[in-house]
Amino acid sequence: MMHHDTLGNPMTYHSSPLIDPQITDEALEWAIMHGVAIKNPDGSARHCPFSIAPMSLKRSVYQHLLKVTPLLTKLIDAVSEDHAFLRTALGQMGQADPFFGRLLQMHARIHQDEQHIARRQPLLIMRTDYMDDRQQGAKVIEFNGIAAGMGPFGQRATELHAFMQRQWPSTYQQWLESSNAAPAENQALTELAQAIATTAKTIHDSYQDKPRCQNQKHQQNQNQNQAKPTFLMVVQKNEDNVYDQHLLEVALQAQGIRTVRRTFQQLASQLYTGDGHRLMLKNVGHIDVVYLRAGYQFSDYCAPELMEPECCATLSQIRIFIEQHHVAVNATVSQQLATSKTMQMLLSQMTPEALTHWGLTLEEARLVQSVLAQMLPITTAQIHWFNSQANAQDWVLKNQGEGGGHCIFGEQISTKLAALKPQDYDAWALMQRLYPHERERPTIAVRQGEQSLIQDLVSEIGLFSVFFNGQPMTEHNGYAGYLVRSKPAKENEGGIHSGQGILDSITLIDA
């Protein structure tokens, strides 16, 4: 029986359930009850698609990723604060990609001279996405330094599988890839909230002994929450992934942090400067942490009603204004630049010795190199090589875009390369295509309340890490849990929202 998802994509379901529908009904109700949901346009919610049992990963691979991911974060953190290097390394890419060109203009305004000090304190919340290639082992797909979300969903997926194991152990074991596998601990929501709360309190406490103006005293009298550290989440208008965001906010509130949400357009008329270069929000008061879940595409800064002579100029200035204040920020403009595909390519081409420039030891640099996949710039010579010698199935063509829909595969690569103008080349890169291990046993995916059997599931593993002012913010060298999204091997787009991805978790095997 053929069905279609909300985007019109065909999905094959069995006419008779693969397992008792009572099980999947209760599992999806658990998911909705625990916030593992996506908001529908009419204001209702639907559960996120999920697997009925977790994937398996070799313990040695998992431990290697736990060791190397904080080192990658340490590297990116240092690169993001090397402002001269960012300008030099990404200048040509900025000319080829209009959005990153705008980011570089913003970067120049923020760091142009001593009269315009970037007082912001860098809070790097990064998700490093990997695939475990069949031949070459685990390799980085991309760095996510802005809007690096879904950590809460990662922890919830692990908890959902634990719920399955407790409630229906025989069904869980039936679909488990390895009967001897042990669940990998995942405290992504808890760890991220703790790191952000600690950061917010650090900024907040730095102001406690400083004099306050009368206006601030008045606000304190008006608002009992004024004494609390305050977290601002910058969001997209009409966002559908609100529940993942709210899970983080609720966890922060439990730690005594006040949370507020605003779009860039709202901030344009609500931000102002307080004493001691403190960032202030109208009708709220001081802000201690700014966390961007928006800002990675032009549409986030677009406000047609402003009738701007230059699109997005007004709202993009908000980021400049924020970074001129004493506030913790994720992602800073420089962090967004440092996690670009072009920077990933440049770092992958460096020797371990070159990487030590940013504070890594030679041994750490070699570990970093071990997970960086080969990437190549787009040039006339490279295009000729690709068309005449390369195996198209071994490569992916990527631009600088975030999220799904920015990768080109197989024979379509040559078509796209032929259509590119030379001035566009620096916005693109070729990356070695990864072919991860397929799950050895079929699994059941639950999407829109229906069961489907997937024979060839592969997984993308995202590891979170947090650094503040160059220092790791968790007890595990900055590591802060994981997110697993799995998809059929034949599908190129594995997003939870727009692709054929499903939430998953990890079990460890010693083989």
Task: Tell me about this structure.
By secondary structure, the protein is of the alpha+beta class. Among the domains are: 116-123 and 191-338, 3-Layer(aba) Sandwich (Rossmann fold); 374-433, Dna Ligase, domain 1 (2-Layer Sandwich), CATH 3.30.1490.50. The chain is built from 17 helices and 27 strands. The strands form seven sheets. Strands 7, 8, 10, 11, 15, 16, 23, 24, 25 and 26 form a ten-stranded mixed β-sheet that branches. The longest helix has 22 residues, at 59-80. It is globular and about 65 Å long. It starts with a strand and ends with a strand. The relative contact order is 0.21. Mean pLDDT is 91; it is low at 1-11 and 217-222.
Q: Brief description of this entry?
A:
The protein is an alpha+beta fold and 511 residues long.
Structural class: alpha+beta
In terms of DSSP E residues, the strand content is 15-25%
Q: Extract low-pLDDT stretches.
A: 1-11, 217-222
H/I helix tally: 17
- What would you report as the Rg, rounded to the nearest angstrom? 23 Å
Q: Would you identify the CATH H-level superfamily of the domain at 116-123 and 191-338?
A: Glutathione synthase, substrate-binding domain superfamily, eukaryotic
CATH class of the domain at 116-123 and 191-338: Alpha Beta
Mind summarizing the main beta sheet?
10 strands, mixed
CATH topology of the domain at 116-123 and 191-338: Rossmann fold
DSSP strand count: 27
> CATH architecture of the domain at 116-123 and 191-338, please?
3-Layer(aba) Sandwich
Average of the residue pLDDT scores? 91
* Helical fraction: 25-40%
Distance between the termini: 38 Å
Tell me the overall shape: globular
